[in-house]
Amino acid sequence: VEGFRFSTEIAVRFAETDAQGVAHNAAYLVWFEVARIEYLARFRAGYKGLQADGYEALTTDAHVRYLQPVFFDDRVLIHARCIDIRGARFRYEYVLERDGETVADGSTRHAVVDRVTLKPTRFPGWLAEEIARAEASKD
Amino acid sequence: VEGFRFSTEIAVRFAETDAQGVAHNAAYLVWFEVARIEYLARFRAGYKGLQADGYEALTTDAHVRYLQPVFFDDRVLIHARCIDIRGARFRYEYVLERDGETVADGSTRHAVVDRVTLKPTRFPGWLAEEIARAEASKD
Amino acid sequence: VEGFRFSTEIAVRFAETDAQGVAHNAAYLVWFEVARIEYLARFRAGYKGLQADGYEALTTDAHVRYLQPVFFDDRVLIHARCIDIRGARFRYEYVLERDGETVADGSTRHAVVDRVTLKPTRFPGWLAEEIARAEASKD
Amino acid sequence: VEGFRFSTEIAVRFAETDAQGVAHNAAYLVWFEVARIEYLARFRAGYKGLQADGYEALTTDAHVRYLQPVFFDDRVLIHARCIDIRGARFRYEYVLERDGETVADGSTRHAVVDRVTLKPTRFPGWLAEEIARAEASKD
Q1: Nearest one of B76, B67, B80 to B100, comparing CA atoms
Q2: Which of D26, D34, D68 is nearest to C108 (CA)?
Q3: How far apart are CA C87 and CA C94, in angstroms?
Q4: Would strands C101-114 and D75-86 be described as parallel, antiparallel, or unpaired?
Q5: pLDDT of B128
Q6: What number of CA atoms fall less than 13 Å from residue C62's CA on the CB side?
Q7: B-chain residues within 8 Å CB-CB of D22?
């Protein structure tokens, strides 16, 4: 998918389906999160490293467009990118693809907070730079 | 909350919390669904009645704004309304309130489909009328 | 159900169903937990009160027998009792009933731990007494 | 782990943790299911193939022993084996391992049913044979 340099794949779990026979709408937010964790795992110690450094990221907004139903055991490729890092805030965009077809897309907004006080705190500079570099890289 | 005539209450389950100590962001989409089911339960046989009549409603879009974290065992009042019924499509809006404070809001879009073919089909006329009447009623 | 003095009701959520059209097997453990929380809510400040006092209860064992499938929107009565309180350990038993028919039963084992160190600690004496009194009471 | 010839790995999702900071007890049943699906994927078209052939497997019993807490992003190796195939019934056993330490174990019982009528039906002979062969194989 154009504009995305990172992707990770999930298989739809049986527990994620519902009585309509498709993946439940809430599962997509879990998959977005799985993609964010994998995305960050490329930078130093990933999200666990950020937690160890005293940070936590809260989700402040989520949007999903469900374009095609997704079924048990489908392999879904989640393209993700982190953009718009400003102060404590940042955003992720996602495109979900099955066999080359876009089946959903969406975005989430987040705020970096201090792990103890839960007060907003600046996005770590080194990570912003590494992400900017990764997103700017030629394929 | 102004403009909403229906609400239902949930208690945040321990299973819905995450290691940040707050309700997980995906739980809100489950709560929205609980509110839709309760909303429809006021009209004839509710969602199960619609299924018995051969209908199913797919979720085509979901949006959540997380304004304040919500904790284990919090009582959250979910205000919901069904609006913009057009052809097969309709929309829900939600406001989540804890102790009089708005902690989240959001909306979902849906399409009525034939239960077997999953093809879009017109929103049942009788239900559109009953919802319009309920939403227009004075308190 | 004989031998049970406490029960609470849940409605099966659509999100809890799976592509077999029935409630997913993992949902039962969430319902058991909902029942435990409601069970404890009768004593002082409930589970949140225990947390405030510095306790947490870990689940060390869970067993479920699925006797009849349970469907979307079914009302399920969860009978629960807390038994075998010994040192840091205690056990719950459950019977799930729909329209007077037993649809599942099970049990869970737990250990009281210090909330910070996660080390086992004695079950609070006042609560053991109140539970013993509640379980021994005539209806 | 002795006696197990199959294993698959999961990473604990953030959504699977709870406010105790550990993986929620219900997540283990989802992981057991993930392991069963992977286990069967080695034989012809896996569980989806069984569904295509008109079968469905219901869970009739589940047991989990939680020995050590499991945390966000932990890699957990799930050892699984299918045993005791008799008529429509069969059983799975599981051992969960993190960094060489057993953190949980458990078992589930199942019944093969006709996908439409949900009536018990004999476990497919070819699959019973292939499983017996796989479980009997030298490493």
Answers
A1: B76
A2: D26
A3: 22
A4: unpaired
A5: 96
A6: 23
A7: 19
Q: State whether the Cα torsion A117-B105-B60-B6 is positive or negative.
A: positive
Question: Does the pLDDT at position D105 exceed 60?
Answer: yes
How far is C-alpha D63 from the geometric centre of its chain's CA atoms? 12
Residues in C whose CB is inside 8 Å of some CB of A read 14-15, 17-19, 21-22, 24, 26, 71-72
Residue B112 neighbours by CB distance under 10 Å:
21
Per residue of chain C (139 residues), what is the pLDDT tens digit? 899 999 999 999 999 999 999 999 999 999 999 999 999 999 999 999 999 999 999 999 999 999 999 999 999 999 999 999 999 999 999 999 999 999 999 999 999 999 988 899 999 999 999 999 999 986 5
Of D15, D37, D46, nearest to A30 by CB-CB distance is D15
Contact B58, B105 (CB under 8 A): no
Task: Dump strand ranges (E) for D12-133.
Answer: 55-66, 75-86, 89-98, 101-114
CA distance D120 to chain C (A): 13
Single out the residue of B67, B63, B74, B73 nearest to residue B32, CA to CA.
B63
Long-range contacts of D126-130 (CB under 8 A, 24+ apart): D126/D44, D127/D43, D127/D44, D127/D50, D128/D85, D130/D43
Using a 10 angstrom Cβ sphere, with 0-12 exposed, 13-18 middle and 19 or more buried, the burial of residue D117 is exposed
Q: Is the pTM of this model over 0.95?
A: yes
CA separation for the pair C18, C26 (Å, rounded): 10
CB-nearest partner of B73 from C13, C37, C73 = C37
Strand extents, DSSP E, C1-139? 6-11, 55-66, 75-86, 89-98, 101-114
Report pLDDT digits (tens) over A83-128: 999 999 999 999 999 999 999 999 999 999 999 888 999 999 999 9
Query: pLDDT by residue (tens digit) across A48-67?
Result: 999 999 999 999 999 999 99
**pLDDT, position C69:** 95
Tokens of D83: 């045993």
Please report, for residues C21, C80, D41, D42, D51, the alpha-carbon distance to residue D48 in angstroms, rounded to integers and kept in the order given: 16, 37, 9, 12, 5
Q: Which residue of A has its CA nearest to C27?
A: A15
